[in-house]
Amino acid sequence: MSNKVRTGLPRYVITCLGLAALAGVTLFGSRATAGVLPEDRADVLYFRYDGGGVTINGPSMLVRKSIGEHVSVAANYYIDMVSSASIDVQTSASPYDDERTQASLSMDFLHGKSTYSIGYVDSDESDYKAKTMFASVSHDMFGDLTTISFAFKSGQNEVFRNVKIDDVKQNDPAFNDGLGHADMESRSFSVGVSQIVTRNLVLSGQYEVITDEGWLNSPYRSVRFFIGTDAQGQQPEKYPNTRSSNAASIRGKYFLPWRAAVDGMYRFYTDTWGVVGHTGELGYVHPLDKKFAGGDWTIEGRLRYYTQSAADFYADIFPRADFSNFMARDKELATYNAITAGIGATYEFKIERFPWLTKGQLNLRYDYMTISYDDFRDATFSLGKFGALPDEPLAPGTEPLYELKANIFQFYISAFF
Amino acid sequence: MRIRGLFVLTALVAMAGCSSIEPWVKPYDRENLADPIMSFSRAPISQDFLDHVFESREGSRGATGGGGGGCGCN
Predict the structure, then answer these.
(1) What is the rounded distance in angstroms from the CA atom of residue A261 to the CA atom of residue A250?
(2) What residues of B are in contact with residue A72 (Cβ under 8 Å)?
(3) What's the rounded Cα separation, in Å, for the pair A373 and A335?
(4) A199 DSSP assignment
(5) Could you tell me which of A103, A167, A100 has the C-alpha nearest to residue A127?
């Protein structure tokens, strides 16, 4: 009898939370303020990422439009054009070009103090296809000082391996024991709260649990292992087929006395693979004096710091082949820290001939990212690049630690109507 | 039973609290908060792109918002 009480109550609570989550979103995910629909806008972005032998550029387009007073619809189309000769590719493959397209559609329904959101995201690249649906609800309370939100996200992913047959890139029919593809499912639950603290300060927090199951490692990447003391071999990575993570973040924004805003964010992350991450970010937004700047300019500065510990089954080089059940050499699972510094400028304008255009914005943004790895070495010093050995190869495990530096450019135009 | 009672009591207290809390920042005091520079994401299209850049290169994920999918990470 007592057992029934103990087990029944948590189930009831979990069911309530589950239903709330199924109904809906996070405050951040929808980027909507409960009680007020997001403003109508259209954005066109061009971006370029250049670092670590990888160049990615492409456009992204976002349109958001209200339908009546209670519904807002948003559509986004995004293309990643990738040209890659990354450190992983240099040591085990040939440079390649690829393209990823992502399309999403979402709807927000405003009902009283609540906003319900649903959405669908489709991502397609030659060796990875992802379909994600999400739903969320957010609700204003306490005189609109507090907004709470719940969100649920579910993803179905298909992983392929590309090979060149007769010089034509195609999916490898032999991949995954002849199946040709592998599946991965992902679920996410999150809760969030946003709180107006004073007339100049707003705080928000979010907690998100993500679970993955299925094929989680790269179909291409290999791990290294010692053969004797100064030779090395390679074998395919092997990951667990489940991963669960917990992430909690808090952020705040403060309005300064001279019409500028400063914001800060901290996120703690941990998962079942042993990765523990800390993210911190500081930002400053400052509209310039119109007479001084000769127009309606806003400048922005941002500094982001990230550090993480390695996954339990990560090693730059393993002591021997088949050293353990799970083996990884993905640098994203290594121990490292990263600093990203960014600056941006926005010019706001109006066009008299287009009275329907509330305002327009031209935006430029540049970020410089540097990642310093503590236990991921530049294996090109021993393995060479694209199959060509270096003139004087270093002994495995003595190569210099790898460092990644990247330039990230964004230019986008926003129209509000 | 004790846990269930505690839960009901907590819920009742919380609901009672809802009706009596007066907003300490009045709507007419929210001019600064309504300024566009106080938005956590003034440019969602740019923020989504940057979130994807970071998520593709870091072991951490989640609690940043966004609803993307796919890899784009090689």
Answers:
(1) 17
(2) none
(3) 6
(4) T
(5) A100
Angle made by CA atoms A19, A204, A195, in degrees to the nearest 5: 90
Number of domains in chain B: 1
Q: What is the distance between the alpha carbons of residues A174 and A180, in angstroms, rounded to a whole number?
A: 6
Contact B65 A29 (CB under 8 A): yes
In a domain, B24, yes or no: yes
B25: distance to nearest CA of chain A, Å?
6
Question: What tokens does A84 get?
Answer: 């890659």
What gap in Å lies between CA A35 and CA A145, rounded to an integer? 11
Q: Which one, of A83, A319, A154, lies nearest residue A223 by Cα?
A: A319
- Is B34 within 8 Å of chain A by CB? no
* A201 vs A283: CA distance, rounded Å: 14
Q: In this structure, what token pair is assigned to residue A268?
A: 């703690």
* pLDDT tens by residue, chain A, 417 residues: 333 333 344 443 444 344 344 333 333 333 434 478 899 999 999 999 999 999 999 999 999 999 999 999 999 999 999 998 899 888 877 788 899 999 999 999 999 999 999 999 999 999 999 999 999 999 999 888 999 999 999 999 999 999 988 888 899 999 999 999 999 999 999 999 999 999 999 999 999 999 999 999 999 999 999 999 889 999 999 999 999 999 999 999 999 999 999 999 999 999 999 999 999 999 999 999 888 877 899 999 999 999 999 999 999 999 999 999 999 999 999 999 999 999 999 999 999 899 889 999 999 999 999 999 999 999 999 999 988 889 999 999 999 999 999 999 999 999 999
Q: Which residue, chain included where needed, has tokens 């390695």? A: A310
Give the number of other Cβ atoms within 10 Å of residue B51's Cβ: 17
Q: Where along chain A do its domains lie? A: 34-94+138-147+190-416
Give dist(CA B74, CA B59) in Å, integer.
14
| CB-based burial label for A24 (10 Å; 0-12, 13-18, 19+) | buried
Q: Which of A124, A199, A273 sits opposite B29 (nearest CB)?
A: A199
Assigned domain for B74 exists: no
Distance (Å, whole) CA A416 – CA A356: 9
Phi, psi of B36 (to 5 degrees): -55, -25
Q: Which of B37, B60, B72 sits opposite A287 (nearest CB)?
A: B37
- Please report the residues numbered 45 through 74 in chain B whose beta carbons come closer than 8 angstroms to any beta carbon of chain A: 45-46, 48-50, 53-54, 56-74
Domain that holds residue B28: 2-57
